[in-house]
């Protein structure tokens, strides 16, 4: 089962990816992916196109989403896998989360203006394939265009991250609501890229335990954001909390992503892959 090339988290132009949903599916197929989930931020818009293309090219496809959550003072991302994209509570919940993005984008642009970078809102929107979903990745592409950094990764070292110019606080969904929407829509809930959060060991334990007790299913052990040590560390936590393990590139596009579709490291063989519940 672990030999299956599963990639259960990536993005299209429906959020902040640079490839259209059908292009993501074709690239995954070409890269040898056996099972793909498209998981756009707070948005289900790309799933119909991806589902149709996957049927056409003969790729097993799982409808997904990546929900923005506020927990303690952090933003935590939760992936939902195998959700019903027509579920009314999920659809309404995501609309509410997306609704906060317009005002946030205006506040980010105002912060950038304060340090002399004008036109950032229009600049970010020009990169957004979906105007309802302006993300920091779109601002990052605009800042690269302006010569403020050499690539998107570099942007986040100097801008848009907490403590840096262009960062604004924002309240997203609650952990409990996000788990509830995903489970209510028949999906599996997964904590995305846990290695990215600035949490102490004790806080990470509380996050995973709370999540599991609310009905959460899995944690991304292998993902584009984790080095080898983090894969082992989160494998230990998956065992400790009895969570299933996921594998994900978090691919955003050929230019923006360190790891291509289907190229995240394999899961440690003793873990139970989350896709055993999907196929
Ligand atoms: P948002 O949901 O608007 O806060 O945007 C978050 C998105 O910004 C992530 O999904 C990534 O696409 C991008 N991002 C955040 N931090 C980084 C980073 N350090 N390097 C590259 N992209 C990042
Ligand atoms: Mn993103
Ligand atoms: Mn994420
Ligand atoms: Mn992602």
Record the SSE blueprint:
Blueprint: E1 6-7, H1 21-30, E2 35-38, H2 47-57, E3 60-71, E4 74-81, H3 88-99, H4 101-114, H5 120-127, H6 136-145, H7 152-158, H8 175-184, E5 188-191, H9 201-213, E6 218-223, H10 228-241, E7 244-248
Helix pairs in contact: 1-2, 5-6, 6-7
Bound molecules: adenosine monophosphate and manganese (II) ion (MN) (3 copies).
One manganese (II) ion is lined by residues 9, 11, 66, 250.
Give a brief description.
The protein is α/β, with parallel strands linked by helices and 279 residues long. Helices cover 39% and strands 15% of the residues. Residues 66, 77, 192-193 line the site of one manganese (II) ion.
Explain what you see:
The chain has 279 residues and is of the alpha/beta class. It has ten helices and seven strands. It is 39% helix and 15% strand. It has a seven-stranded mixed sheet with strand order 1-2-3-4-5-6-7. Strand 3 and strand 4 form a beta hairpin. The longest helix is centred in the middle third of the chain and has 14 residues, at 101-114. It is globular, with a radius of gyration of 18 Å. The termini are close together. The mean pLDDT is 97. It binds adenosine monophosphate and manganese (II) ion (3 copies). The site of one manganese (II) ion has 6 residues, from loops.
């Amino acid at each position: 089962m672990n030999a299956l090339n599963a990639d259960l988290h990536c993005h299209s132009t429906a959020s902040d990816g640079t490839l259209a949903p059908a292009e993501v599916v074709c690239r995954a197929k070409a890269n040898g992916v056996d099972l793909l989930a498209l998981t756009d931020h707070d948005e289900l818009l790309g799933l119909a196109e991806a589902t149709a293309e996957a049927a056409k090219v003969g790729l097993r496809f799982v409808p997904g989403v990546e929900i923005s959550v506020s927990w303690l003072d952090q933003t935590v991302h939760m992936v939902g896998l195998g959700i019903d994209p027509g579920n009314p509570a999920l659809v309404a919940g995501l609309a509410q989360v997306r609704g906060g993005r317009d005002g946030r984008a205006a506040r980010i642009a105002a912060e950038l203006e304060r340090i002399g970078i004008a036109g950032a809102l229009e600049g970010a929107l020009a990169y957004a394939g979906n105007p309802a979903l302006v993300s920091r990745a779109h601002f990052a592409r605009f800042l690269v265009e302006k010569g403020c950094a050499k690539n998107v990764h570099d942007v986040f070292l100097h801008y848009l991250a907490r403590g840096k110019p262009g960062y604004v606080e924002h309240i997203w969904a609650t952990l409990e609501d996000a788990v509830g929407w995903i489970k209510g829509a028949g999906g599996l809930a997964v904590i995305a890229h846990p290695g990215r959060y600035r949490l102490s060991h004790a806080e990470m334990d509380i996050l995973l335990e709370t999540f599991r007790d609310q009905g959460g299913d899995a944690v991304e052990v292998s993902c584009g954001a984790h080095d080898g040590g983090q894969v082992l560390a989160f494998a230990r936590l998956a065992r400790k909390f009895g969570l299933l393990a996921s594998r994900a590139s978090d691919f955003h596009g050929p230019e923006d992503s360190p790891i291509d579709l289907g190229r995240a490291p394999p899961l440690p063989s003793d873990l139970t892959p989350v896709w055993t519940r999907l196929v």
